[in-house]
Amino acid sequence: MTADPGPPHHRPHRPPHEGGFGWHEVDVMAYKQEGDAPFRDVTRQVLFDHPELACQLRYFEVAPGGHTTLERHEHVHAVMVVRGRGKALVGESIHELALNDLVQVPASTWHQFRAPDDEPLGFLCLVNAERDRPQLPDADQLAALQADPERASFIRH
Ligand code: MN
Question: Given this structure, which CATH class describes domain 25-154?
Answer without folding.
Answer: mainly beta
